[in-house]
Amino acid sequence: MKKIMLVGSVGCGKTTLCQRINRLEQRYKKTQALEVINTTIDTPGEYLERRSCLGSLLVTSCEVDLVLFLLDATESRFMYSPGQATSFPVPVMGVVTKTDLASAKQRSDAIDLLELAGAERIFEVSSVDGEGIEALIDFLSD
Ligand SMILES: Nc1nc2c(ncn2[C@@H]2O[C@H](COP(=O)(O)OP(=O)(O)OP(=O)(O)O)[C@@H](O)[C@H]2O)c(=O)[nH]1
Ligand SMILES: [Mg+2]
To answer: Measuring from atom 30 of ligand 1, which residue has the nearest CA?
Structure first.
């Protein structure tokens, strides 16, 4: 399994996805600090949202093979900068989350925004109904 770090704004579904890809029980827990779960590093949404914390994400990304930029398809805020992926020393993939709640337009807008942020490849997932989870796990298992 590739080592990954999950990045995304508060409540976008990082911890829930982390539980899903590590086949753990689904349990809500607010992320307060960087947390290592097997080969996954979960991060608090505040680290992306507070510009002063961005350095911590960059330093920690040196420990992983891949960074995943998550974006909640139903969220109107966009916390990534255009091309932000290029500031990371490892490849960045995009993950559109909460597809079970999103319209087709919200999903395609989220894909466009993750491309704008510089994500190389984009996955669409729902941690609730399981859409896209196996495809993501397969990709991470390569
Ligand atoms: N419907 C739906 N809800 C989801 C999905 N993923 C997460 N949620 C819900 O969204 C809320 C926030 O999920 P978290 O995984 O805690 O979000 P997070 O990105 O880890 O948030 P922080 O730790 O605060 O940065 C929870 O109530 C989850 O149950 C999804 O795919 N579909
Ligand atoms: Mg969390």
So the answer is: 98
Instruction: Compute the distance between CA of residue 73 and CA of residue 31 in angstroms, rounded to an integer.
Output: 20
Report which DSSP code applies to 17: H
Q: What does the domain layout of the chain look like in residue ranges?
A: 4-141
Ligand 1: residue of 15, 16, 70 to mutate (most ligand atoms within 8 A of CB) is: 16
Q: Residues whose CB is under 5 A from ligand 2 (ion)?
A: 14-15, 31
CATH number of 4-141: 3.40.50.300
Tokens of 40: 């996954």
Report the nearest atom of ligand 1 relative to the CA of 101: 1
| pLDDT tens readout for residues 106-141 | 999 999 999 999 999 999 999 999 999 999 999 999
- What's the pTM value of the predicted model, to 2 decimals? 0.97
